[in-house]
Amino acid sequence: ALDIRDLRTKTGCITYDESYGNTGSCQSRITFIDGEKGILRYRGIPIEELAEGSTFVQAAYLIIFGKLPTETERLRFSGLLTKYQMIHEDMKFHFEGFPSSAHPMAILSAMINAAGCFLPELNTEYDAERFEIQAAHLLSQVRTLAAYAFRKSRGLPSIYPKKKYMFTENFLHMMFSEPDEDYELDPAVVDALDLIFLLHADHEQNCSTATVRMVASSKANLFASASAGVCALWGPLHGGANQAVIEMLKEIRADKDDGTLFLDKVKHKNHGAKLMGFGHRVYKNYDPRARIIKRKCDELLSKMGISDPLLDIAKKLEETALNDPYFIERRLYPNVDFYSGIIMRAIGIPTEMFTVIFAIGRMPGWIANYREVAEAGDSRIYRPRQIYQGPSLNHYVPLFER
Ligand code: ACO
């Protein structure tokens, strides 16, 4: 077998792999993807089976701890999530400092780091014995912070989590309840949002997870590493695509286009136009998560009696694109972000919160990847090389001579 340590001492040869398209940056046991066949498995279990049988919290446990929880483990972990769901009361002052125009992703990344400061006993280097407690704090509190960020952006008072609610129920409660009236939880809505969290829970070395591992490799703490993940996720080419998809669909509708004119712009790369929610670095086939989400989208909207014109445009775009040589040649298919926004719109989640929902869902993956880096006792700090293209030698010129 290859001994990686042998390679560490050899220097002088650098492989150039733009954007790391073919670079295996780590060894991992968490998530398997076969992009050619459109396969995704968490700890070996197909995503379709998890979507059918598991809750988000059980899938989170599987991803973080490597196995599905027994009933005792599930109860203990759920108990920890409930126990640690409140954030420190003084964190309200931090929320107050943000302007109401602040994007909730900016608030979320700052507040995850701030939450760590309020937990000094946990905001330390990796500690195997206390890791379950650390993980439960982060997973539970990110949901509270996300809901508070939304309420802040609307100038609304924050709503405390309640012990009687499960993970996803509590999030909806903190988002939509009023101080004197609880939000009416619809099991179909809870189930759909829980599924969205589960489908986003991990996806191997994507931009944000690779960022978390990069930061973790410097032995930064879990909260700092996760906060960096939020920043990386924010961009429209990554997690921000779910927001960009809805904005694109709205624009197409406002132009009274059925998608034909827009796809023409995309194919001619007019001002860099892209069909958002399509294409993937790894999947060269239909993203299995998109298939599950599309089905759930139809099911939820019909249960809620909603007819969303954006869904009709999205379906038309998909049908046209999948039969168009531009998309066929480049093997571009819908990804997880193509239909998820339509479900979130139906639930009443505002567009600027879509990527925040993704971040809550992705937290188990970031936590598991952080743990993998921290537990690999002999792992070295991540440090890619570059192909230098600047001048080989220049000399300093004093200011008065320039
Ligand atoms: N619309 C139109 N053309 C596209 C799209 C798209 N969505 N995606 C890729 N292409 C084209 C590229 O322009 C390129 O064309 P060319 O051969 O003429 O130069 C070709 O397909 C290959 O694409 P790359 O840019 O090399 O693909 P890469 O792997 O670098 O990018 C990415 C993947 C970022 C996801 C890209 O497909 C994209 O921008 N998609 C839209 C944004 C999006 O949906 N992001 C979410 C991804 S999933 C996630 O992060 C959860």
Automatic annotation (TrEMBL):
GO terms for biological process: tricarboxylic acid cycle. Gene3D superfamilies: 2.20.28.60, Citrate Synthase, domain 1, Cytochrome P450-Terp, domain 2. Keywords: Transferase, Tricarboxylic acid cycle. The active site is at residues 280, 337. GO terms for cellular component: cytoplasm. It catalyses: oxaloacetate + acetyl-CoA + H2O = citrate + CoA + H(+). InterPro entries: Citrate_synth-like_lrg_a-sub, Citrate_synth-like_sm_a-sub, Citrate_synthase, Citrate_synthase_AS, Citrate_synthase_bac-typ, Citrate_synthase_sf, Citrate_synthase_typ-I. Pfam families: Citrate_synt (PF00285). It comes from the Bacteria. Belongs to the citrate synthase family. This is Citrate synthase. It comes from Mesoterricola silvestris. The gene is gltA.
